[in-house]
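In the current project phase, our protein records have gained a structure token line. A sample record follows, to show the layout:
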Amino acid sequence: MRQASKRIMMVRPKHFGYDPETAESNAFQSSEGAQKYDEIERLAIGEFDAAVEKLRHKGVEVEVIEDTDSPKKLNAVFPNNWVSFHDDKVVLYPMLTASRRSERRLDVVEQFQAQGFVADEVIDLSNYESEDKFLESTGSIIFDYEHKLAYACISPRTDAQLFEKLCEITGFEPIAFYSYDEHGQEIYHTNVMMCIASDYVVICSESIPEDQRSEVLGALTKTGHEIVDISLAQVHQFAGNMLELEDKNGQSILVMSKAAFLSLTKAQVDIISKYSELLAIPIPTIEKYGGGSIRCMMCRVN
């Protein structure tokens, strides 16, 4: 698989709002004004539709899946936590919070298979929820598809043993580490502090303990990636939550939120611009109450 995807899946939410259950392990969520349920939902759906329009305008193939009305799923807009598509496999993942587990939909996988996505097997790891072991797909894992390496920061949502098992199943070499915010709290998902593109990586190296940092940066340097180092302050603006896609001309675009883009320095933009066009999409409501950004909304298909 190429690193930059041409085709992604996004889930248009029926409901959206602040989820107190997920907030226990997600420091990026805010409950301020969260009782304005209808307004928040309306704004989030509007942000979603505008994001899809921007991506399609660039020629990205976006498969929009409609969320089901019941059960109510406040985080359905973030499908990259429950499924990943590989060359010949589809993997379904165990999720930490019970409120999110109904997001897993086999009918969605079957829809892609009917459209020609060839999967020799569907690997369902959700039974590990009964053992309190969790791994939340490309939220937990950053895949370097071209070099068959997988990076993950261990947290309540990312079990180290299950990460190794997943890598064994999919043929990736695991690189596990820890990542902490400025308060010493584990960063809940790897994809808020790290993004691997074809030629570069956006990463918050200061969040990684010193004894592990050199291993992670060394692996990235060895694969020829130019390092764009971001600060913890930029992580809080979702500057690590980006995804490289291909436009209609086969050119690289790096998709990020407007908040992430505005947090970048000129030097960081200059490095990324050597390789990719930067595409900034405003999703303030989704970021504030969902605690995730644009990368969490996109599940790469191929």
Notes: The two ends are 7 Å apart (CA to CA). Residues 11 and 65 are 5 Å apart (CA to CA). The longest helix spans residues 37-57.
